[in-house]
Amino acid sequence: MAFDFGNLLPQYVGGLAAADPAQAERDFGTVAQHAPSSAMAQGITEALRSDQTPPFAQMVSQLFGRSDPTQRAGMLNQLLSHVSPAMLASLAGTIGNFLSQGSQPQVTPQQANAIIPAQLSALSVPPPPQSPAPPRPDATPSPHATRL
């Protein structure tokens, strides 16, 4: 028997189902198993961009604080894999130096457990949007460009 989203959806329209967080967690797990991954990704992206969602750094910090040491290490390793070498060097004073001979950082559960959630804010604040790059002088002109 296929999962019926139609029976579940009315419970959550308008945010009225927040009374039972345990049930919401079970329902999310069920939906995540049955929904296409592209739909899940789109929904999570929209939720994270919502003006009703706390800042990303705050959510990461809360998630980190509620995680076990293994989950914390996984989060840190994932976040650290996306920062520049210069930022890794600057973070060494804040969260510790996890580099070994210039390699990709690998945080152990023991190391992750020593980090407090507030220390993650530097890792989880997205960079400011960049302005579009100016056109290159040697770029191929548009076929619609006017010739002088």
Automatic annotation (TrEMBL):
Listed Pro residues bias regions: 125-140
Annotated spans, Disordered: 118-148
Name under which the protein is recorded: Uncharacterized protein
Biological source species: Pseudoduganella ginsengisoli
